[in-house]
Specification:
mainly alpha, ABC transporter involved in vitamin B12 uptake, BtuC, 14 helices
């Protein structure tokens, strides 16, 4: 009797798991279709609209220039930055087992911004080979992100797991320190550097070029693929560090890989696009609400949905007040801030 009951329970669990996996595959297909739709809308809409037939075969030189030299690298970079922030947010939430572990809220983006700002102000006086100079800002941003993420990891290891209050207080402290550093660099900058700093910090893809977009996209893609390799280990880590260790996961190595890859992805994106908030917080939660918490689904789904939302935010920023352009961070914050308030109320009530 007990054996039959156990067999029925096992069959029911298997059926539920199969249904859940089918649902997750369906959501992934839907996210991919949404991604393709947003790419098309972003390419064809703007200050100069391009119709369907003109999109397939541009007639004028102006349309070719706008489509291939201005919009395409911009959309390419926006997609990769959105994917990097989203997948890094999902991985950090899994690592710290905390729903508020967003790259912006816990200070990772601020650390990356501080490194990039330092290069903007002092990059001209550094003795750097000209062939390496285009990579100077991404490298500095990545180093800043690694320092902040390593500090968070060390704090968590010394004092135990994060709770909601602790992670918010740490994020406030780190963001405040980064703001002080950025303010000091602004004070030391000249008029040209100050203008560059102000425009960059508001978040924008308007300066995207194929050269920088391709190199940054390569760095982000490698980091995201490396994060995706640990999707099963992240699932096991949700059981607890000791349990994951007994199941064959090298927890310390896993933490180092996630910290390094998340910081690299976020730092590379921040270096070129500026500080763009809430994407790494909102997207993973939307993905989990729809299809479940398995990282084998959450990581690729976050990348697709994050890229779509970022490209859509960029489209809104450059079309809502034509011919002017809004900072992308204003659009993402308008979406993310209400969601963040809802999330806080949900965490507090649970």
């Amino acid at each position: 009797m007990v054996s039959a009951s156990f067999s029925l329970k096992k069959k029911f669990t298997t059926l539920v798991e199969v249904k859940r996996q089918r649902s997750q595959r369906l959501y992934l297909v839907c996210f991919f279709l949404v991604f393709l739709l947003v790419v098309f809308l972003s390419l064809t809409n703007g200050a100069i609209s391009i119709g369907l037939f003109d999109f397939l075969e541009p007639e004028s030189q102006l349309q070719k220039t706008v489509l291939y030299e201005i919009r395409s690298p911009r959309i390419f970079l926006a997609g990769f930055v959105g994917a990097s922030l989203s997948i890094a947010g999902a991985a950090l939430q899994g690592l710290f087992r905390n729903p508020l572990a967003d790259p912006g809220l816990i200070g990772v983006s601020s650390g990356a911004a501080l490194g990039a700002v330092a290069v903007i102000v002092f990059g001209s006086v550094l003795s750097v080979n000209e062939s390496f100079r285009p990579y100077l800002m991404p490298v500095a941003a990545i180093c800043g992100a690694i320092v902040v993420t390593s500090f968070l990891y060390s704090f968590a290891r010394r004092y135990g797991e994060f709770n909601v209050a602790t992670i918010l207080l740490l994020g406030i402290a780190i963001n405040s320190l980064a703001t002080v550093g950025i303010g000091a660099f602004q004070y030391l900058s000249d008029d040209g550097e100050l203008r560059t700093l102000t425009f960059w910090m508001m978040g924008s893809f308007s300066r995207s070029m194929w050269f920088t977009a391709l190199h940054t996209g390569t760095i982000i893609l490698m980091s995201c693929l490396w994060l995706a390799r640990d999707r099963r280990n992240l699932d096991l880590l949700q059981l607890g560090e000791h349990e994951a260790q007994h199941l064959g996961v090298s927890v310390n190595h896993l933490k180092r890989r996630i910290i390094l890859c998340s910081a690299t992805a976020v730092g590379a994106g921040v270096a070129l696009a500026g500080m763009i908030g809430f994407v790494g917080l909102v997207v993973p939660h939307l993905v989990r609400l729809l299809g479940g918490v398995s990282h084998q689904y959450v990581l690729p789904a976050s990348a697709l949905l994050g890229a779509s939302i970022m490209m859509l935010a960029d489209l809104v920023s450059r079309t809502i007040v034509v011919p002017a352009e809004l900072p992308v961070s204003l659009v993402t914050s308008a979406i993310g801030a209400p969601f963040f308030l809802w999330l806080i109320s949900r965490v507090r009530s649970s």
